[in-house]
Structure formats: C-alpha cells, structure tokens
Automatic annotation (TrEMBL):
Active site: 65
Record's protein name: Shikimate dehydrogenase (NADP(+))
GO MF terms held by the record: NADP binding; shikimate 3-dehydrogenase (NADP+) activity
Record GO biological process: amino acid biosynthetic process; aromatic amino acid family biosynthetic process; chorismate biosynthetic process; shikimate metabolic process
InterPro entries found in the cross-reference section: Aminoacid_DH-like_N_sf (IPR046346), NAD(P)-bd_dom_sf (IPR036291), SDH_C (IPR041121), Shikimate_DH (IPR011342), Shikimate_DH-bd_N (IPR013708), Shikimate_DH_fam (IPR022893), Shikm_DH/Glu-tRNA_Rdtase (IPR006151)
Catalytic activity field: shikimate + NADP(+) = 3-dehydroshikimate + NADPH + H(+)
EC number in record: 1.1.1.25
Quaternary state and interactors: Homodimer.
Amino acids binding NADP(+): 127-131, 151-156, 219, 242
Organism: Halobacillus karajensis
Length: 278
C-alpha cells in the first residue's frame, strides 16, 4: 500500500492525484496520493512532520523545488547537478531527491514535434526557476545546440547558465530583450507560473515578434490552453501543452517509487478530457 503525495503552495489545482491513482490502476498496485499544502512560513515545521508520516514518496512543486534540498538525505546525479528536486523517495538511506521535470518535458516534446530536435533549433527559455533548470539540462543533452535564458533581470539567468551549461551556446537576456527577438527562435518555452489559474489572463511577455511555425510551449497546464498559448495560436505557432510534460514526468516519478514500467500515452486522451471538463 503506497503512501504518496505532493507538497507545494498552492496545490489545490493539482491533477497529480488523478494521474497517480490512474497509474496505480494501470500497474495493478494499491496506494493513496494526497495533496499536502504547506504555507511558506510553515515550511520547516511541516516538512519535519512529514518524516513522521512514513510516506513512501512525494512530489515537490513550486515554490519548494530548491528549498526542499537541505531536508533530504541524498540526491541523484541529475538533482545534484540542477539544484532542484521534484520527486522524493523514502529509501533505506532516508529521503532521496530526484528531478524528472526535464526529461518529462523533452520526451513529451519529442513525441509531438520530433523535427525540432532534427533541426537543432535555437531555443528560448522564459524563467530561471527549478523547472527551467530541469528543462535546460535535459535540452542540453538533446540535439538542441543553442539555449538562451530570459528572466526579468539577467542575474538568475546568468546563474542558471553558469551552473548547468556544459559548452552549449547560451545567452542570458532580460524579458524585454527576448520579447524583441522572438523571431530568432524555433522553440520558446514558458517555464514560470505566469498565466496559471486564477491568473489566467496574464502573460509573461508580448508575442508580437513571434514567427509562424515556431513551437511554443507553456508548462502551465491549468488552464490547459493558457493566454500565452492562445496568443501564440493566433500567430500560427505550433503548440505544446503543459499537461503533456506533467503526465510524462509523473510517469518517471511513479517508476522511481514503485519500480514498475508505467506508460503515459494510454492516459493522455482521458487526461485531456478531464482538464477540459468533458
């Protein structure tokens, strides 16, 4: 009987319980997945209490992907490299941290737009938080040859590039600089929470300079089609949705916890209908 969960703030919107309950059914295992909302001022106290709950594992979402690390007993190579964790497993050696965000993103993107990798497209990441770090690292290991990072100020973008880049061409930009040069990129990835419900009318930047046929991705999945993606659609971009990444990274987390081989594709259509309220 697996005891699993998700910590973050807020988490009331999360579809992770639905995903993992369906993965349990798919793999024929029993368990429970609960939402554990932790306010920032209560983080230290609540995380220490979690150790008494004997959870087999849990996911970590914003804003705690970096903050959770000092409370863990070990990190796998990817999480250590990134300095960000989205999956924790209870092992004989204590709490081990992993990061499945980046590979989940890349594999879901490759499933939909494999040509992006064949062309070696120039990529622009918007944001420089935990999710951006995971996506950057995974893209760097793919065929992508140039990844620029844009943030409100360039300081954190510079830090991300310095921490992770292994010889790949990368430039830190302000959001204003990136906004005026969107035509340079074949892939644009929005990695922040801007546009997530209830702020669904917000956009991180204007897309006035977007080129037709550009692949535009937003890791926000509620709403499924964010304002950012809606504006990209008007400009005839090709859209990659956040729920595809969410499902794929969840599959990897579930595999870590249960040592099973879950599959994302059989759940994708049902997941989309669930998000649309069908």
């Amino acid at each position: 009987m697996y005891k699993l969960g998700l910590i973050g703030y807020p988490v009331g919107h999360s579809m992770s319980p639905w995903i993992h309950e369906n993965l349990m059914k798919q793999q024929g295992v029993e368990g429970k997945y609960e939402l554990i909302e932790i306010k920032p001022e209560e983080f230290d106290e609540k995380v220490k209490m979690l150790k008494t709950k004997e959870l087999d594992g849990f996911n970590v979402t914003v804003p705690y992907k970096e903050k959770i690390i000092p409370y863990l007993d070990g990190l796998d190579q990817s999480a250590r490299h990134l300095g960000a964790v989205n999956t924790v497993k209870l092992t004989n050696d204590g709490w081990m941290g992993y990061n499945t965000d980046g590979q989940g993103f890349v594999d879901s993107l490759r499933n939909r737009f494999p040509d992006i990798f064949h062309k070696g497209s120039q990529t622009l990441l918007l944001g420089s938080g935990g999710a951006a770090r995971g996506i950057y690292e995974a893209l760097m290991r793919s065929e992508i040859t140039k990844i620029d990072v844009a943030n409100r100020t360039t300081t954190r973008a510079e830090e991300l590039i310095q921490d992770i880049s292994a010889g790949i061409s990368s430039q830190p930009l302000t959001l204003n600089q990136a906004e005026s040069t969107l035509e340079n990129y074949g892939l644009i990835v929005q990695t922040t929470t801007v546009g997530m419900s209830p702020g669904h009318d917000q956009m991180i930047m204007s897309l006035d300079h977007l080129t037709k046929g550009t692949v535009v991705s937003d890791i926000v999945y509620r709403p499924m089609k964010t304002k950012f993606l809606s504006e990209a659609d008007k400009r005839e971009a090709r859209l990659h949705f956040g729920h595809e990444m969410l499902l794929q990274q969840a599959v990897y987390a579930f595999k870590i916890w249960t040592d099973t081989e879950p599959q994302a594709v059989p759940l994708l259509k049902e997941f989309e209908q669930k998000l649309k309220g069908v």
